[in-house]
Predict the structure of YmaF family protein.
Amino acid sequence: MPTQTHVHEFEQSTKLAETGDDRHNHRLAGVTSEVIPIGNGRHVHAILSNTDFLDHHHEIGVTTGPDIPIPGTNKHVHVVNGVTTIDDGHFHQFQFTTQINSPLV
C-alpha cells in the first residue's frame, strides 16, 4: 500500500463580480489532494471545490503552485489562483495561499 502524503486546508473569498445590486463574492473552503510530485523534490496539489451558495454557486478546479518553504521551519504553503466556473452569467477570480501543512506537528 502506498504511503499517504500530506494535504493543506484552505479558506478564502473570491474576488467581486457583477455590478450594482448584483455585485457579490463567494466563500470557499476545503482540503487539497495529496502530493502530486513535479520533480526535483517539489510538488503541487489539486483542488476541486464548490463556493458557498447565494442564489447560485460556482465550482473551482485548479492545481496549486509549487511548494513555497517557510524560512526557519520544515513547513510550506502553496499559491493558488484561477477563475471559477461561469454560473448565473458570470465568474469570479480568486487568489490565495493554502494553510501551512501540519501546523501543529
Summary: The CA atoms of residues 74 and 101 lie 9 Å apart. The chain has a mean pLDDT of 92.
